[in-house]
Amino acid sequence: MSDSPESAAPFDPYSPPRVEASPATESLKRPSRPGWLTALSIITIMLGGLGLASAVMGIVTTIAAPYLQNAMQPPANAQIDPMTQLQLDMNRAQYKLLAKLFWPLIGFGIGHVLVAGLLLTGGVMSLMKKPFGRTLLVATFLLAILFELCRSYLTGVQMMETYEIMNEYMGQMAGAMPGPAPPGMGQMMTTMSKVIVIFQAVVAGIWLLVKLVFYATSYVYLRRPDIRQHFDGPQPAV
């Protein structure tokens, strides 16, 4: 005979039956998933997908540049006007720059594929509340910060040399136009090329800053103890 209070108590037909806790009941006690955690996962998936497409396109463009240059060459006996010749010379200078930076561009392109793939995988697993997804994102955010800072140097070098090429040829194109060029046309075209490069640099800098802030804040957020409890299974220490 059991000596527990439940067995010693008389049977009461009017008392509700006792319900034992089950895993399903325990899961209902878990706090609801924060909206920012879901948004973080979705944003990470988008960044990973867009980054993967951009990285693959960049690698293909870098590899295909010499073949595009050969395809755009005019026939040997073709009559070329001065404007067309300047455009061809500018294109050759740009392709020469790509050839000069070929291996750094390919190396960072492969690195971009790796980082973007990890972001995409971690974002999907985090959205599914998998513990490894959170762990993967914590490590990938640190890797992404380091990668973006290193790649920004190569991007800056490429943009500066591109500006020098445009600055050299855009001013000459005004003099190569058929007929008399308006006064100050060469200076205006040089200024326009400078504005375009500066605008591209500003946009790239803002986008870099946005990504760095997102990666850093998301890294800190995912390491919070109150966020770990929203992932199923045992949580690692990171």
User: What is the percentage of strand-forming residues?
Assistant: under 5%
SSE order: HHHHHHHH
Radius of gyration: 30 Å
Task: Identify the overall geometry.
Answer: elongated
Number of strands: 0
Query: Which range best describes the helical content: under 10%, 10-25%, 25-40%, 40-55%, 55-70% or over 70%?
Result: over 70%
Nearest-integer average pLDDT = 84
Search tags:
238 residues; 8 helices; mainly alpha; single chain; elongated
Which helices and strands, and how do they pair?
Blueprint: H1 5-8, H2 23-28, H3 35-71, H4 82-100, H5 102-127, H6 131-176, H7 185-222, H8 225-228
Helix pairs in contact: 3-4, 3-5, 4-6, 5-6, 6-7
Report on this structure.
There is one protein chain. The chain is 76% helix and 0% strand. By secondary structure, it is mostly helical. Helix 4 packs antiparallel against helix 6 and helix 6 (131-176) packs antiparallel against helix 7. Mean pLDDT is 84; it is low at 24-28.
Summarize the structure.
With 238 residues, this protein is an all-alpha fold. It has helices spanning 5-8, 23-28, 35-71, 82-100, 102-127, 131-176, 185-222, 225-228.
